[in-house]
Structure formats: C-alpha cells, structure tokens
Amino acid sequence: MDTSTACCAKGRREVFKRTSQFARASRGGNEGYAAAVRVFIAEEQNHARLLAALLVAANAPVITSHRSDAGFVRLRRALGVRLELMVLFVTGFIALGYCRALRDGVGEPLAAEAAGRILADEERHVRFHSQQLRLEFAAVPRRRGVRWPVCGRC
After folding, report:
1. In terms of CATH architecture, what is 3-138?
2. What pLDDT digit, counting tens, does each position of 99-124 carry?
3. Residue 8 to residue 61: CA distance in whole angstroms
C-alpha cells in the first residue's frame, strides 16, 4: 500500500471525530439520528484501524497527520449541514469504487477481507447520507423548476 492509503487510515479517523452532524443531532434531541451518527463515526474509526493494521503488517509507514486533513475538516464544517452531508455522501460514493477495486484486485486475502468489510460499511453509509440529504432538502422550500437530485438509486 502507498502513503496515500496510510494517510487515509489516519485521516478517516480524525475527519469524523467531531462531525457537526453529531453535534447537531445531540443538541436537537434527535436520539435516533445521534445514535446513527455515533455508529457511523465508530465504523469510520474502525476503517482507520483496519487500514493502519494492514500498513503495519506490510511494514509500510503509517502517517499520523497530513495538512489536507485539517483543511478538509474546516471546509466540511464551514459549509453547513446540507453541504457537509453532500461531502460525506460523495466521499462515501468514491470509497465504494476504491474499496471494490481493492477487494477484487489486491490479490492478498487479508487486504481483500478488510476492503470487503469497509465496502459493506460504505454501502450503508451512502444509503444513510442519501436518506439524510433527502430529509434536509425536503425542508428547503421548492422553487418552481428546481429539483434537488440525490442519488435516486440509494
């Protein structure tokens, strides 16, 4: 695995530590949503642990931080909840292809198993974010002729 995967291991854990979704759900008293966000964060942290363990097993360096992490977090939080959900949705959607390719093409059983586990989680994450985006955009007044498309197959 390359250093971008190492950074991903650290970055995924850090990016989701204090998501504004979680803060919003907790403050708003929506315990079901807060619980779902807690599960999402825990799964993302588990992905980071899996990727870091693979790197250690391959004697590859694990990057503990990268300047892009902080920038990504600041940007994501500054955009508001709807755009934050969109960013998380898009990154999850990208992860689907990456994890599928890794699982199917890596040729190493342990890495393929880890990628398969992450893929299964990401499939649920994309559905979760798609549902949340639909709810968020449903609250936005519709203007004539304007539609808010959010992954019709998710």
Report:
1. Up-down Bundle (1.20)
2. 999 999 999 999 999 999 999 999 99
3. 12
